[in-house]
Design brief:
The complex is a heterodimer of chains A (96) and B (259). Chain A is built from four helices and two strands, in the order ααββαα. With 96 residues, chain A is mainly alpha-helical. In chain A, a hairpin with a 2-residue loop joins strand 1 (44-45) and strand 2. By secondary structure, chain B is of the alpha+beta class. Chain B folds into two domains: 7-120, no CATH class; 123-255, no CATH class. Chain B is elongated and about 85 Å long. In chain B, strands 1, 2, 3, 4, 5 and 6 form a six-stranded antiparallel sheet that branches. A four-stranded antiparallel sheet of chain B has the order 8-9-7-10. Chain B is built from seven helices and ten strands. Chain B has helices at 57-78, 98-108, 110-120, 134-144, 146-155, 160-194, 227-238, and strands at residues 7-14, 21-23, 32-37, 40-47, 81-83, 89-91, 123-132, 199-203, 212-222, 242-250. Classes of the chains: A mainly alpha (96), B alpha+beta (259). The interface between A and B is large, with 57 and 74 residues.
Chain lengths: 96, 259
């Protein structure tokens, strides 16, 4: 009986698509990711592609989405990415 | 919005040469349609050549939700797509109209776009965020680690002043152990999850109010093959002090850039 219950509780996790529970995941993806057109045919602000530049200000206060944790950096890749992000932020801040 | 508007807001690139309308489902209820070049198309709506921007959080939120809904509609219609970042607007230039520019871009980037489409074909993106409560983990460690238990036992036999110093040492030791445990979990989970997915990407961790994010991952999984991953995440979620936030399927937002 006990083992049967154990089996039942071991069913895997269902991914969630519920909008309320995934809004910050959605914002992360739509504002920070996605394909970028690297060409002079898209609208830019002072040479920086517009993508999300204007939105960051509005969103920044909304959640802590731009404040990243300070856990130990485990792998080189994560650290490299973070350095890139910081550089990008300074640039955006200066021009917007 | 008229055909003569100077901008085209681009939602995604799709693997289809079909020229069609998806209806008035775009931002501000604009008509969404495809601009094609051979076997590729861009899914767009007509707009002025200026960015969507607002100080109203709710407005921005709604735009992002609509952007996502259009991308999903295109995904259902065309099968394989590359979602664009928000606010990607192609404009008229001296070389041609916005529409011409999109066609030229599709032609010039065709090989690259095709390779990117191949990468995500028949796959779906999922988000995995694993968090833990450091207090729960620390409590578990202090129950089981011998050198910490020894130290705890010693404290009770010490004078007030000494006990204070010992407690400080204990705290420092415990902190180190929690860090070590975090590193161990990170490696262990990474390897286990990697075995269940086609591609795995480590994202930046984010601040949380009540707990600490241990890892933030995006992965690509073949359609209909999430079973192994779901089992593995279920086991992690069942662990003391750990919780898993598992979202998706998403369009492949995290897997469209060249690495």
């Amino acid at each position: 009986m006990a083992s049967l219950q154990l089996c039942e509780s071991r069913l895997g996790m269902e991914p969630t698509r519920d909008l309320h529970g995934t809004l910050s995941d959605l914002l992360d993806r739509v504002l920070d990711k996605g394909l970028i057109i690297n060409a002079d045919i898209i609208i830019t602000v002072s040479g920086i592609p517009l993508i999300a530049v204007n939105l960051r200000a509005a969103i920044a206060g909304m959640e802590t989405m731009l404040e990243y944790g300070v856990m130990t950096d485990w792998d080189e890749k994560t650290r490299a990415r973070e350095r890139e992000l910081k550089k990008g932020k300074v640039l955006l801040g200066a021009k917007s | 919005m008229s055909q003569n508007s100077k901008g085209r807001y681009v939602y995604c690139v799709a693997e289809s040469g079909e020229k069609c309308s998806l209806g008035n489902i775009g931002l501000d209820n604009n008509e969404v349609y495809s601009i094609s070049h051979h076997d590729l198309c861009a899914v767009v709506h007509n707009c002025p050549a200026e960015p969507y921007s607002s100080d109203e959080q709710e407005t921005v939120r709604q735009w992002v939700i609509v952007h996502q809904k259009v991308v999903e509609a295109a995904l259902n219609r065309f099968g394989t797509i590359l979602p664009m970042a928000f606010d990607t607007i192609v404009q008229d230039t001296d070389e041609g109209s916005a529409e011409d520019n999109i066609r030229k871009w599709l032609a010039a980037e065709r090989d690259k776009l095709k390779r990117k489409l191949d990468r995500v074909r028949d796959k779906e993106e999922y988000g995995i965020q694993i968090s833990w409560e450091p207090k729960v983990i620390a409590a578990a460690i202090s129950r089981t680690a011998p050198h910490i238990q020894e130290l705890q036992a010693e404290i009770s036999s010490k004078s007030k002043g000494l006990a204070y110093m010992y407690r400080q040492r204990l705290e420092k030791l415990l902190k180190q152990e929690v860090e070590r445990e975090a590193e161990r979990c990170f490696k262990d989970f990474y390897i286990r999850i990697k075995g269940c997915v086609s591609e795995l990407k480590v994202e930046r961790t984010k601040k949380q109010e009540d707990k600490q994010m241990l890892m933030n991952l995006s992965c690509l999984v073949p359609k209909g093959e999430t079973g192994l991953l779901a089992d593995e995440l279920g086991k992690i979620d069942d662990m003391d002090g750990l919780s898993v936030h598992f979202t998706g399927p998403w369009p492949p937002y995290s897997f469209v850039k060249v690495d």
